[in-house]
Design a protein that fits this description.
Blueprint (H helix, E strand, L loop, with lengths): L1 H10 L6 H6 L1 H19 L17 H12 L4 H12 L25 E3 L4 E3 L1 H11 L10 H11 L15 H15 L9 H5 L6 E2 L2 E2 L12 E2 L5 E2 L1 H11 L10 H13 L9 E2 L2
Parallel strand pairs: 5-7
Antiparallel strand pairs: 1-2, 3-4, 5-6
Amino acid sequence: MKKFILALAGLGIMVCTTAARAEAPAAVAEAARMKVVNYLEHKLPNVKLQEYVYGSFAFDPDGMSQYQSFMDFPPWQDQVDKGKKMWETPFKDGKTYAECMPNGGRMIAGDYPKYDEKLGRVVTFENLVNDCRVKNGEKPYSYHDMKTMGVLMSYAKTLSDGMKMNIKVDSPGALKAFEAGMKTYYTRVGQLNFSCASCHIYSAGNRLRSQVLSPVIGQAVHFPVFRAASRPVTLENRFVGCFKKVRAVPDKEGSTRFNDLAYFMSYLSNGLPLKADVYRQ
């Protein structure tokens, strides 16, 4: 807890009283977001906030050229096509994903993760997909199975391309989940004693070995991503990889801790446009 509070103090984020949080959760969350925005804009004055959606490529001209080459002729298009087929194939009861999702699943991904007051927890877009499957008599997909959930997400998320991230933190319960995600983000873990913030806030724009570290803002808008192996990677699947790299024991995708972390991270990217299926190193 002490390390977490010190990390927040480094950004000027004050820990509020329970009463203050209950009165204005949206204001508390936005103040935390703006502290990160202001810190990164001061640290990285030559890159516009809107360019953060390109991740580390925004700081690396050679990398940006490579990114554009991949995006012109994406070698993972067959995976996205498989995802489209999965999306359009009816369930055993004859219904489809589009029929059990808000707005037919179009232009909604930017609203997720969201805090569900009735359930008392954060619900991700992947949760929404599995809820749809269960309601229609199908078994849920495993959140760590990129051959099913990952491939389906690679198409489903494209239906919201261009939508701006629009995460809400508008209740005491939502703020509690947001702050739990924030705590996970700033807490150092593993044998290497790193936090998410160590790399993607305090060292954003710096080079680590052969790669430039991307800022947290803009990260959540482009998942799933495809890496060199043409395999989709969801945001929470990426969490697992990061935890392992710092030699920490990760949660499983879909856990409360990882859902809250995704909620916090996604809120930080509010106002930036979604673009699924992009290339990342």
